[in-house]
Amino acid sequence: MYIYMKRFMDVLCIIAAAPLWVPLLAVLAVLVGTTSSGGVFFTQKRFGQDKKFFQLYKFRSMYTTAPSDMPTHLLKNPQAHITPVGRLLRKFSLDELPQIFNILAGDMSLVGPRPALWNQDDLIAERDKHGANSIPVGLTGLAQIRGRDELPIETKAAYDGEYAKKMSLSFDIKIIFQTAISALTGRGVKEGGAK
């Protein structure tokens, strides 16, 4: 079954890429920690595979006064809550880098539906319709390369379902490659959108 091979490939890829992401993680941690008060990392309760909860890691991109359990798009003025370094991190999706630890822990995969917030029942319900809650959640996914923050929930869930049906090594490689292009260009990022 591909899900077991997927887990092996996730760990192998992360270990092989360690010379790239470890120094980057260290530099970003220093930037976050020295430019605004508060911890370097931010944790949030998210839905994982089979709707099981786990704590997702991110670099903190907001001030400590920002609501912690509210999707960014529901905030009255999202820009007012985001730190200057946080804007840069979010533009290029670098705030997501600590999720490498979630992948190593087995909470996530490199590719899969993005983990829904604990209170995003609408997204979870839509994913149920498409059979997308039974597979590992991911650092990136099909919805991320097809529009990301610009997509309505119904469309995101449909893409997640499409991924669940087509999941394969070649499909994962294609999504990772297209994600790298999107991250470098900042395409699809809409501040105030839900990631």
What's this model, at a glance?
The chain contains 9 helices and 4 strands, in the order ααββαααβαβααα. It is mainly alpha-helical and 195 residues long.
List keywords for this structure.
two-stranded parallel ribbon; 9 helices; 50% helix; 10% strand; 195 residues; disordered C terminus; two-stranded antiparallel ribbon
What report would you give on this structure?
Mean pLDDT is 90; it is low at 191-195. The chain is mainly alpha-helical. The strands form two sheets. A two-stranded antiparallel ribbon has the order 1-2. A two-stranded parallel sheet has the order 3-4. The chain has helices at residues 2-16, 18-35, 78-81, 84-91, 99-105, 121-130, 142-145, 153-166, 169-185, and strands at residues 41-47, 53-59, 109-111, 138-140. It is globular, with a radius of gyration of 16 Å. It starts with a helix and ends in a 10-residue tail after the last helix. The protein contains nine helices and four strands; from the N terminus they run ααββαααβαβααα. Helix 6 (121-130) links the parallel strand 3 (109-111) and strand 4 (138-140).
